[in-house]
């Protein structure tokens, strides 16, 4: 089986690794020049760590990242508090927090080992490729999605976000615990690790994606939490407007399929974007491995993944994000 993948980010690189593991002859086309120096970080769900084990990079990602064992949420208006474990039934590992650059480096090193050919600085369209399977991992504004006849585009969620990193941990806050503080204008969050320091964000409601919130106002809710000590002298990102994509449109044709943000981009507030992309990639490979035809494989992939994408896009109030079962992520090596 020949597999061509459009996009070399987290979704595309994981898809290439998974395809390589099941024995497919795989090529990746990435429009940008080769680089893994992406800023930012991700928190990967336990199910995503199970998926990364299947493609041979889980151990390395856990080594360069750190575990997230619990979530603690505080409503600063009502004082209500809630705690959630970051372990999931059937999955061995908890959530893992990792720099995007380290995750991408692990994935691309694995592609080197598997002999996957990558074409950087090469923009291609799905209708220019002749592989048995073409995977559109080309992001929220996916040209592949449009070629499939899916007209949906990402919509603004009504929030902007900025991120911060400080080399030290906030005193008095438990390590490896993701702390959230909800306030009338949004949410702030913090997590810390003795080696990697503090990571925080401030998410703020706005009327328009072009609105720029004054930095003092954006950071004020964070300064009113125990994480205040790591706000000053932190490296702070630019503000970014948040978007999401309705997952109900067309996901595949007879030989072309969407994964990750190309199929179901979610807001950062869902904390599921990278994890969902990784899971998509491995579930797709499993379906290709276990189906008699490519069409039936793509049908099976969509039937498994779309309900989870919808539940993340429009979750039931008070419910934690859904995740696939371990058996949906196991590849025959």
TrEMBL record:
<protein>
    <recommendedName>
        <fullName>FAD-binding domain-containing protein</fullName>
    </recommendedName>
</protein>
<dbReference type="GO" id="GO:0071949">
    <property type="term" value="F:FAD binding"/>
</dbReference>
<keyword id="KW-0503">Monooxygenase</keyword>
<dbReference type="InterPro" id="IPR050493">
    <property type="entry name" value="FAD-dep_Monooxygenase_BioMet"/>
</dbReference>
<feature type="region of interest" description="Disordered">
    <location>
        <begin position="314"/>
        <end position="333"/>
    </location>
</feature>
<dbReference type="GO" id="GO:0004497">
    <property type="term" value="F:monooxygenase activity"/>
</dbReference>
<feature type="domain" description="FAD-binding">
    <location>
        <begin position="122"/>
        <end position="313"/>
    </location>
</feature>
<keyword id="KW-0560">Oxidoreductase</keyword>
<dbReference type="InterPro" id="IPR002938">
    <property type="entry name" value="FAD-bd"/>
</dbReference>
<dbReference type="InterPro" id="IPR036188">
    <property type="entry name" value="FAD/NAD-bd_sf"/>
</dbReference>
<dbReference type="Pfam" id="PF01494">
    <property type="entry name" value="FAD_binding_3"/>
</dbReference>
């Amino acid at each position: 089986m020949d597999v061509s993948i459009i996009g070399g980010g987290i979704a595309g690189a994981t898809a290439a690794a998974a395809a390589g593991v099941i024995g497919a002859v795989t090529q990746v086309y990435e429009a940008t020049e080769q680089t893994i120096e992406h800023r930012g970080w991700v928190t990967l769900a336990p199910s995503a760590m199970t998926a990364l084990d299947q493609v041979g990079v889980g151990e390395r990602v856990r080594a360069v990242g750190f575990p997230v064992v619990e979530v603690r949420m505080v409503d600063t208006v009502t004082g209500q508090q809630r705690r959630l474990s970051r372990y999931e039934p059937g999955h061995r590992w908890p959530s893992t927090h990792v720099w995007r650059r380290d995750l991408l480096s692990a994935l691309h090193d694995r592609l080197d080992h598997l002999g996957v050919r990558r074409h950087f600085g090469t923009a291609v369209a799905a209708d220019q490729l002749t592989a048995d399977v073409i995977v559109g991992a080309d992001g929220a504004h996916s040209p592949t999605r449009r070629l499939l006849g899916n007209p949906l585009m990402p919509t603004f969620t009504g929030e902007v976000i900025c991120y911060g990193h400080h080399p030290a941990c906030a005193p008095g806050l438990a390590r490896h615990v993701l702390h959230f503080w909800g306030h009338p204008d949004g949410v702030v969050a913090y997590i810390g690790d003795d080696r990697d320091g503090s990571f925080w964000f401030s998410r703020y409601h706005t009327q328009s994606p072009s609105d720029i919130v004054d930095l003092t106002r954006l950071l004020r809710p964070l300064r009113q939490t125990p994480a205040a000590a790591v706000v000053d002298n932190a490296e702070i990102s630019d503000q970014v407007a948040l978007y999401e994509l309705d997952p109900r449109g067309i996901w595949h044709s007879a030989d072309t399929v969407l994964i990750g943000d190309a199929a179901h981009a979610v807001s950062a507030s869902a904390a599921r974007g990278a994890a969902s992309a990784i899971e998509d990639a491995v579930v797709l490979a499993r379906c290709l491995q276990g189906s008699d035809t490519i069409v039936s494989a793509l049908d099976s992939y969509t039937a498994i993944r779309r309900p989870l994408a919808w539940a993340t896009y429009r979750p039931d109030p008070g419910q934690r994000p859904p995740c696939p079962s371990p058996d949906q992520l196991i590849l025959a090596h």
